């Protein structure tokens, strides 16, 4: 199979919030992509997400150069970012510490490795299918997976935005699950913060991807759709397009 051409669209909007705690990182040459959504008082959320966006790509790159398996490289990078964020927040009082989500994708030897911590999501759009590649680490999702809540109840639960796993967790026992896939011509990989996925559903993502083959046009449409739908949050989206030419 010939190499696929990779093009990227990206955008982060503050929306109605007083600051933007989201950030993204894209490196089309090394094929490394990330979205992070920070939390914490004052500017701590911004600090946490920008630490993730700085540390994770560097650590992935370093591990790959040391011939580590890509899945392990991603896990190690997330663990290093976790440690750095715990360390950076250590002088903050309990209840004011910083944290961030991170969803990351890296291509190596024609496989794309995807991992997420927190509730920023990765979706693979392939033809008519939209598949979420990450699991939300929210309390509501955990209650849904254990059968305590139905999917519908989980969607409206007050625990929907409460995370039990994120970067900046002092006690992160198990790391990130890495989901590899082999990209095919026409695939779109979407990384987004919950400011987008909380208000734009899979059906709308599928329809938008069909109408907007250009990755930047797709990103612009989805971010606008989230803001129009009344997202009260920062909205961040990266789309990686894999095409035959
Ligand atoms: Ca958010």
**Biggest sheet overview:** 6 strands, antiparallel
Helix content: 25-40%
Proportion of residues in extended strands: 25-35%
Radius of gyration, CA atoms, in whole angstroms? 17 Å
Q: Briefly note the structural class of the backbone.
A: alpha+beta
Mean pLDDT: 94
Q: N- to C-terminal separation?
A: 12 Å
In the predicted model, the low-confidence regions spanning at least 5 consecutive residues are: none
Instruction: Give the cofactors and ligands.
Output: calcium ion
Instruction: Choose one word for the global shape.
Output: globular
Number of strands: 11
Structure characterization notes:
With 245 residues, the protein is α+β, with helices and mostly antiparallel strands. The chain has seven helices and eleven strands. The chain has helices at 44-65, 70-88, 139-145, 151-155, 194-197, 202-211, 215-228, and strands at residues 5-13, 22-27, 32-39, 99-100, 102-108, 111-117, 121-126, 129-132, 178-181, 188-192, 235-243. The strands form two sheets. Strands 2, 3, 4, 5, 6 and 9 form a six-stranded antiparallel beta sheet that branches. Helix 1 (44-65) packs antiparallel against helix 2 (70-88). The protein is globular. The structure holds calcium ion (CA). Calcium ion is lined by residues 37, 193-195, 233-234.
Topology diagram in text:
Blueprint: E1 5-13, E2 22-27, E3 32-39, H1 44-65, H2 70-88, E4 99-100, E5 102-108, E6 111-117, E7 121-126, E8 129-132, H3 139-145, H4 151-155, E9 178-181, E10 188-192, H5 194-197, H6 202-211, H7 215-228, E11 235-243
Antiparallel strand pairs: 1-11, 2-3, 3-4, 3-5, 5-6, 6-9, 7-8, 7-10, 10-11
The structure holds calcium ion (CA).
């Amino acid at each position: 199979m010939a190499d696929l051409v990779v093009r990227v669209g990206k955008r982060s909007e503050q929306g109605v919030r007083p600051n933007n705690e989201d950030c993204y990182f894209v490196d089309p040459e090394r094929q490394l992509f990330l979205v992070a959504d920070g939390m914490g008082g004052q500017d701590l959320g911004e600090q946490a997400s920008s630490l993730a966006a700085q540390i994770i790509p560097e650590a992935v790159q370093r591990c790959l150069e040391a011939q580590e398996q890509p899945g392990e490289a991603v896990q190690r990078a997330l663990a290093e970012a976790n440690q750095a964020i715990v360390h950076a927040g250590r002088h903050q009082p309990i209840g004011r510490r910083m944290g961030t989500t991170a969803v990351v994708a890296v291509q190596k030897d024609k496989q794309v490795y995807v991992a997420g911590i927190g509730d920023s999501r990765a979706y693979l759009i392939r033809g008519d299918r939209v598949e979420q590649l990450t699991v939300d680490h929210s309390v509501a999702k955990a209650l849904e997976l254990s059968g305590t809540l139905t999917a519908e109840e989980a969607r409206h639960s007050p625990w929907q935005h409460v995370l039990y796993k994120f970067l900046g967790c002092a006690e992160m026992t198990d790391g990130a699950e890495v989901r590899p896939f082999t990209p095919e011509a026409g695939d779109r990989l979407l990384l987004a913060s919950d400011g987008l996925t909380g208000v734009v559903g899979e059906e709308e993502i599928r329809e938008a991807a069909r109408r907007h083959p250009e990755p930047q046009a797709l990103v612009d449409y989805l971010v606008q759709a989230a803001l129009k739908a009344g997202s009260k949050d920062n909205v961040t989206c990266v789309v990686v397009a894999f095409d035959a030419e």
